[in-house]
Description:
globular
Amino acid sequence: xxxxxxxxxxxxxxxxxxxxxxxxxxxxxxxxxxxxxxxxxxxxxxxxxxxxxxxxxxxxxxxxxxxxxxxxxxxxxxxxxxxxxxxxxxxxxxxxxxxxxxxxxxxxxxxxxxxxxxxxxxxxxxxxxxxxxxxxxxxxxxxxxxxxxxxxxxxxxxxxxxxxxxxxxxxxxxxxxxxxxxxxxxxxxxxxxxxxxxxxxxxxxxxxxxxxxxxxxxxxxxxxxxxxxxxxxxxxxxxxxxxxxxxxxxxxxxxxxxxxxxxxxxxxxxxxxxxxxxxxxxxxxxxxxxxxxxxxxxxxxxxxxxxxxxxxxxxxxxxxxxxxxxxxxxxxxxxxxxxxxxxxxxxxxxxxxxxxxxxxxxxxxxxxxxxxxxxxxxxxxxxxxxxxxxxxxxxxxxxxxxxxxxxxxxxxxxxxxxxxxxxxxxxxxxxxxxxxxxxxxxxxxxxxxxxxxx
Length: 454
Ligand code: NCD
Ligand code: ZN
């Protein structure tokens, strides 16, 4: 039996924060009470926050297919460094995760490299059959992702570049008919359906060469997000499927989502730190690291998203961690691919936002508890309570962290949040009771949703 005691910290429990010791046996939390006695190792957390490890439900590992940009080793090293103990990888790797066979081989590869736990999304596209979805669910997919815009390329030459146009090299979008056809199947499986919400017909109308940041903003108007959210909600509502909106970026998109929720659509909204902490005004300082899809928009959009989070309408903060190489990102604006790393700064971003909103304890809800519940892991991850995995992050609320390229563990070191200062520092991270430090041998495992029906 391996025992661990984390003593003297302020612990985030399902009932809120309290002073307590956390006792762990064989990787599982057994007791959360004041003044427990130590049998084995004891870690002094006096003056520290003791938080559940974050669950980032939106990362792009690039593995397999584009490992010059990132792989499961670098992704999960960055995650571990920032207190993210579970990552859930998007299916736009090569080959795309569109069948149980591809999912299983990706899982085996990821298992050999992962330093934190990981889950996998399956792809839902126009040609997808109900059997494919059922087989991916049986193989452990946490849910399915549908891209409603021309978004990513399955060619090895490049991952994604946004065009909103028909290009044989680009993955064709899933149309609303496909969503209508397959939503009942996903609902029956009890899994969430996540969408990249940009409407391709709106994008087509605003297409232009992307020479400047303003071109990017004009080419991806918030209308595209709002239309896709409304239409997807309309076709999914009757099926009862749980619709998850990935990387919500605009006030208009948020309004469309709230309208759909008001009429009873089962929905969760995710936004990302870059949409909450940056605006288009930051582009002059940050440069192409800020180029991503959907784009970082105006101060009014940022304020609406922060307010959505404050009101609890937006419940999940994940990162859309989407690295490229620094060489690719240092090309001119038009050629630089879209996406930025972010997983390493997820928890710090959430703590800072929560502190600025006056309640720091919202951070573990946005970054850990709500995302764990979305992907069916809510019984084992997302809280510090008996029976839960001992995925634990010790944070110093008097520490300071400044986001610097040399501290980033991803292949792409210049992130959109470069230069940001946080009033917190991640001190120690445990995955199932084992410290996940630089030299540690701790291995991540694949996580599977608990509630697969049928
Ligand atoms: C993502 C990628 O590169 O895979 N890029 C991005 O700008 N967000 C794609 C995505 O999340 O849709
Ligand atoms: Zn993404």
